[in-house]
Amino acid sequence: AGIWFWRKRDGFVPHPGVEASGYRLHLLALVIAGVVIVAAVVNTIDEMDSLLESQARDFRELDRVSREMQ
To answer: What is the pLDDT of residues 23-49, one digit of tens each?
Structure first.
């Protein structure tokens, strides 16, 4: 943003590559943030899945024990 304010005030026009690289960096940052968020969500879902699996295992074990006691 600093470059743009400076350019507007002084009438200085930077090389087109300067602005393009700025946009590219911004886009790269957004992509990286997206990937990180997706990875976090997938990781959370995976953890929830394994937690539910272990709970189901415990429940089956409990069910079997209670049947044996009857």
So the answer is: 777 888 889 999 999 999 999 999 999
The pTM for the full model equals 0.47
DSSP 3-state assignment of 9? helix
Domain ranges of the chain: 2-69
Contact 22, 29 (CB under 8 A): no
Q: CA-CA distance, 60 to 69, in Å (whole number)? A: 14
